[in-house]
């Protein structure tokens, strides 16, 4: 049988001599196409070649198929013939036996006399019996052989099935080789099998001949002399001596000889067929061998091609990688450029924002995230507050998987140092020397690091000590003469206490002067000129401050602490004076009583702290929404901070937050409060500088020339601001006795609650002036007694604050410039800066 599907998907197969040989599709394609064609010689040509080869191959296979079918048929026939022959032989032999018996009976009369049954003679193994036994044995062997052939066919077909399948080019080639090798092996096995068959048949034949010889047949009659060996003839003539050899003239021998002849012819035919088969198989094996070599060559060529392609792919890939790297480098450079531009823009934006903050008088808000502490527990991955590395004004809180963003003016991370934080506020501190009022306060939940940032440990001091040190350094070598003094107080359970004088009888009260301004009678104010004195002062304050250990903080501040620093300057040459005040406030931390488990005294403290912080929130809310009434008086804290929160002050708040998840609610509240505070507009702060009279007169004269003034009304007229001017009894109480700036000194502008008509005329450079943008307004209060043409009735230059009554101030640019140059050269202290921080 031959089954071959050219170009089809089924695997080709042919069966030879009862065994099926499969050719895998890949092999069939390779044998019929690839081997015959030249790879890469073009589709059409290749296809044509392949189809030509396939046709030839097909024809050849068809021929093989036909021949094999013939072979198979003839084999079957020969087997059938063989069986028939054996049957005939048996019959012949039994006939012969019978005749032999009869002959024996005739010859031996005793046998009849003894009346022995003929079968008795069969009891003894006679040669005929042996012959029959052998024939039977051969028959059995043949059956076993046929069974084995059938088994073999089964194994063949299952292994063929395994061989079918699709592979890639390389594996196809590999499988082609394997298939071809397998086929070759099968063919060889077939050949071997056929060889054995032929040998067996020969043996059978020989045995049959021997049997015939033994039975007394003339072998030469049935076997051509050419095929009969000399031994056979000798044997046949020598054995038994039946004497039927020779001419075979007896009728039985004639009958046998015709049958034998027929058998012999059949056998010969069979052998010839088998020989033909064998030859054909040999030829097939050669063809397959040849094909195998071709396939192997093609396979090797393809392998080499694949290698070349892989190599060229490698080169292409390397080239592409290089190009990608170049593109990436290009993109990175562009990105860097963009990031640089972005950072530049951010800087610029910040600068403009700061200017806007100055113009609006917004409270600036910084944020500091403290590192985790032991009170936070051991939550390793509980850090929820992160900062943006590219934008230092963004705080992100991961609130249960959702990010919340908060804008601040600048954020400091967990690793920020005290000096980095101070660096950010140092410009503000410096402006105190220029006569500004500055308030820096730390806000946040208990244990969030307020005291650390404001006070700090002795080894790494915070803003308080660094601010005083900076003031000392900045004022030391100035042409101006400065006096710096400090007082420290706390608000504990809504009671104001002097931390430098803990005399129980010394009860402090905040008082309001009739003309406006707050003061604290009896508060100790200590002049300081060097760091040692400051440290002593802080030590006393620290010792006297109310602290206690709570669940949230081992050394929790139970009070709001205020360090008030006053800087008074005087220019000995011009007689000009300045007064700046720096309020450094370490607020007590808000706390959830449920968390801090406070009770008794601690509970009372917590309630008072929370109440005053709530009042602070109300004040911020009112200021932010520009309410007519701001509830400063609801707590001692807001009453004292009135000046800083709603007055003529540069105010900065540091919101302190804990980084860990367990404090997330407090952190969100703190940052939300910080955002609200950030939106409060206080208006531009003004300097408190007092020019001497002659200078005022000179300035007045210059300004009077062809100048018409507008009078910006001041919010101070309606706002109960606490001015740090010497006119404020509160401030005067901070000053050492006999200070040139006494409460009776009307030179420093007290713009609070003073009707504009009664207010001493103040000279204010408009912020619209090109030289003085942002907070470059200078308030120059003039003495009432001055002969300046700027009288109370005349238009007054004063701080331009939102909501003030104003009349347009017009001044020729030249005059304005002249005036500002004059102000800067004569009035401005050494550190006068046009930019705020
Ligand atoms: N930036 C920081 N670096 C190192 N440790 C810090 C930092 N900030 C705070 N801490 C530590 O955290 C703890 C709590 O800080 P601190 O006492 O300043 O908090 P607080 O906000 O003032 O608390 P309270 O309101 O209860 O007084 C202290 O042990 C302090 O040393």
Description:
By secondary structure, the chain is of the alpha+beta class. 51% of the residues lie in helices and 13% in strands. α2 packs antiparallel against α9 (251-360). It is rod-shaped and about 175 Å long. The relative contact order is 0.08. Bound molecules: adenosine-5'-triphosphate. Adenosine-5'-triphosphate binds at residues 370-371, 373, 444, 446-452, 553, 555-557, 588-589, 656. Adenosine-5'-triphosphate is lined by residues 370-371, 373, 444, 446-452, 553, 555-557, 588-589, 656. It comes from Lymnaea stagnalis. InterPro entries: Kinesin-like_fam, Kinesin_motor_CS, Kinesin_motor_dom, Kinesin_motor_dom_sf, P-loop_NTPase.
How is the quaternary structure best described?
A: single chain
The secondary-structure class comes to alpha+beta
Number of E-type strands: 22
Let me know the largest β-sheet: 10 strands, mixed
Give the low-confidence spans.
Answer: 1-45, 110-123, 162-167, 224-249, 701-837
> What is the rounded Rg?
61 Å
Task: Note the total helix count.
Answer: 21
What is the CA-CA span between the terminal residues? 102 Å
Shape: rod-shaped
Ligands bound here? adenosine-5'-triphosphate
Mean pLDDT: 69
| Estimated helix fraction | 40-55%
Percentage of residues in DSSP E strands: 5-15%
């Amino acid at each position: 049988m031959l089954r071959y599907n050219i170009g089809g998907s089924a695997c080709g197969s042919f069966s030879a001599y009862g065994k099926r040989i499969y050719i895998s599709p890949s092999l069939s394609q390779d044998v019929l196409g690839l081997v015959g064609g030249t790879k890469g010689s073009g589709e059409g040509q290749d296809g044509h070649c392949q189809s030509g080869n396939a046709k030839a191959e097909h024809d050849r296979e068809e021929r093989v198929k036909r021949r094999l079918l013939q072979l198979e048929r003839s084999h079957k026939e020969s087997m059938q013939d063989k069986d028939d022959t054996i049957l005939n032989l048996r019959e012949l032999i039994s006939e012969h036996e019978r005749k032999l018996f009869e002959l024996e009976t005739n010859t031996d009369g005793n046998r009849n006399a003894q009346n022995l049954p003929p079968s008795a003679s069969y009891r003894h193994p006679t040669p005929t019996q042996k012959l029959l036994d052998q024939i039977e044995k051969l028959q059995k062997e043949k059956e076993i052989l046929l069974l084995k052939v059938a088994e073999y066919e089964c194994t063949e077909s299952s292994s063929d099935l395994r061989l079918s399948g699709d592979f890639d080019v390389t594996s196809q080639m590999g499988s082609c080789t394997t298939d071809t090798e397998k086929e070759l092996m099968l063919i060889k096995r077939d050949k071997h099998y056929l060889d054995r068959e032929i040998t067996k048949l020969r043996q059978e034949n020989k045995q049959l001949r021997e049997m015939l010889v033994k039975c007394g047949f003339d072998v030469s009659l049935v076997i051509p002399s050419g095929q009969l060996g000399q031994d056979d003839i000798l044997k046949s003539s020598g054995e038994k001596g039946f004497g039927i050899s020779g001419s075979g003239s007896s009728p039985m021998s004639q009958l046998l000889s015709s049958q034998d002849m027929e058998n012999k012819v059949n056998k010969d035919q069979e052998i010839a067929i088998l020989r033909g088969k064998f030859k054909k198989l040999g030829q097939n094996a050669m063809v397959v061998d040849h094909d195998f070599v071709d396939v192997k060559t093609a396979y090797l060529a393809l392998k080499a091609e694949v290698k070349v392609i892989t190599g060229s792919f490698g080169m292409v890939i390397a080239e592409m990688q290089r190009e990608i790297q170049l593109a990436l480098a290009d993109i990175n450079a562009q990105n860097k450029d963009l990031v640089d531009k972005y950072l530049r823009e951010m800087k610029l934006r910040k600068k403009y924002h700061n200017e806007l903050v100055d113009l609006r008088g917004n409270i600036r808000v910084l944020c500091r995230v403290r590192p985790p502490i032991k009170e936070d527990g051991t939550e390793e991955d509980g850090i929820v507050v992160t900062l943006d590395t590219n934008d230092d004004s963004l705080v992100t809180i991961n609130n249960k998987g959702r990010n919340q963003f908060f804008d601040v003016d600048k954020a400091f991370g967990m690793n920020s140092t005290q000096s980095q934080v101070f660096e950010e506020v140092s410009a503000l501190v410096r402006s105190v020397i220029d006569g500004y009022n500055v308030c820096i306060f730390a806000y946040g939940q208990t244990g969030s690091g307020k005291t650390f940032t404001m006070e700090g440990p002795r080894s790494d001091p915070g803003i308080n000590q660094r601010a005083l040190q900076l003031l000392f350094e900045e004022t030391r070598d100035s042409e101006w003469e400065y006096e710096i003094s400090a007082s420290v107080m706390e608000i504990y359970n809504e009671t104001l206490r002097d931390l430098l004088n803990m005399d129980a009888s010394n009860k402090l009260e905040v008082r309001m002067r009739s003309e406006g301004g707050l003061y604290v009678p009896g508060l100790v104010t200590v002049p300081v000129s060097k760091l040692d004195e400051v440290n002593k002062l802080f030590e006393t304050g620290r010792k006297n401050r109310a602290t206690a250990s709570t669940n949230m903080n081992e050394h929790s501040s139970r009070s709001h602490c205020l360090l008030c620093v006053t800087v008074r300057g005087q220019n000995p040459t011009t007689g000009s004076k300045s007064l700046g005040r720096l309020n450094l406030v370490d607020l007590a931390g808000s706390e959830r009583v449920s968390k801090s488990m406070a009770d008794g005294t601690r509970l009372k403290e917590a309630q008072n702290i929370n109440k005053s912080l709530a009042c602070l929130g109300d004040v911020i809310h009112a200021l932010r929404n520009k309410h007519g009434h701001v509830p400063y008086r609801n707590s001692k804290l807001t009453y004292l901070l009135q000046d800083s929160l709603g007055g003529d002050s540069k105010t900065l708040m540091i919101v302190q937050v804990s980084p860990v998840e367990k404090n997330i609610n407090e952190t969100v509240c703190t940052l939300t409060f910080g955002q609200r505070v950030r939106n409060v507009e206080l208006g531009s702060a003004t300097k408190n500088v007092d020019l001497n009279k002659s200078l005022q007169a000179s300035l007045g004269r210059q300004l009077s020339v062809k100048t018409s003034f507008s009078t910006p009304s001041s919010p101070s007229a309606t706002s109960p601001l606490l001015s740090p001017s010497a006119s404020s009894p509160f401030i005067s109480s901070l000053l050492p006795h006999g200070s040139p700036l006494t409460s009776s000194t009307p030179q420093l502008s007290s713009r609070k609650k003073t009707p504009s008509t009664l207010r001493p005329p103040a000279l204010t450079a408009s912020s619209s002036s090109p030289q003085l943008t942002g907070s470059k307004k200078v308030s120059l209060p003039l003495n009432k007694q001055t002969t300046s043409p700027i009288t109370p009735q005349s238009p007054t230059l004063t701080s331009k604050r939102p909501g003030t009554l104003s009349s347009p101030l017009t001044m020729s640019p030249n005059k304005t410039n002249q005036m500002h140059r004059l102000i800067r050269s004569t009035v401005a202290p050494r550190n006068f800066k046009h930019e705020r921080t």
